[in-house]
Amino acid sequence: MARLFGLIGNRADLAGSVLDLEREALLVDKSVLDRDTPVSWGIGFFQAGEFLLRRKPSDDRQGLDLAELAHGIRSDLMIGHVRQATIGAIRTENTHPFRCRDWLFAHTGSVSKWDAVRERLTESIPEFLRRNIRGDTDSEVLFHLVLSFLHDAGRLRDAPASGDDLRGALSSTMSLVDQVIREEGGDDEFPINALLSDGEILAAVHRGSADRGERMALRYVHGAQDLAALVGGDAMRKVRLTDPGMLRFSLIVSDLGPEQARTAPWTTLPDRAIVVLSRDGEPRVETF
User: Fold this and answer.
1) Within 184-217, where are the H helices?
2) Helix H or strand E encompassing 178
3) What domains can be seen in the chain, in order of their start residue?
């Protein structure tokens, strides 16, 4: 089991309140996990123009609260992850999120036939990116494949990336991995929940089976009602938001239970979806 969340909005001072508001969706009850497998967690956040990481490769607490783990982080963009390892050793280098240059990535799911496809996928990554791979997970290789496609499009560092650029890189990565798996005799699709960001845009991809618990759901926070829920009462005066309609946050969470994912104000994503989230706009959801 794993849990993944991404948050982006236009008020860094209220990001922690958004996580507190939806704390239930960010709780991981370790009683339902494999007790023989350590749990790792990490949070990446954008601050002062760069991504910073807070990661712990092994945590023996009986429950993890991602909202609590993010306490004190003042940022309008975060990616958080809880993991029980399926591929890769228990060490910091294998703990999500992964950072490379100005990019951040986290992923749940496993690439099928990994032992058979790993070398071919790794060799398809340009050397200048491949040498940045520090761990031994399928997730980090997926991340660098995405970066490879962004490089091919001239959007890795030469020019700002758009939502279409991120969507294209994620889609191309899945197509390549599907093809290699198929050529090695495996299933032509692998389940994936992943988040990718350059500090300006947050993109999510979801492909999986609800029967296996691989759901991803979206919570859009905006307007006066949500602002009141975040700060309440007299605290409203301290927020200094003259137009509550300007408030914008998008929170996306993976691997939710069926009741959580279907309960308003959450919106369950289709089984094959790519979502682009920004600080000031509404979520953009497309299927593939």
Assistant:
1) none
2) helix 163-183
3) 3-287 (3.60.20.10)
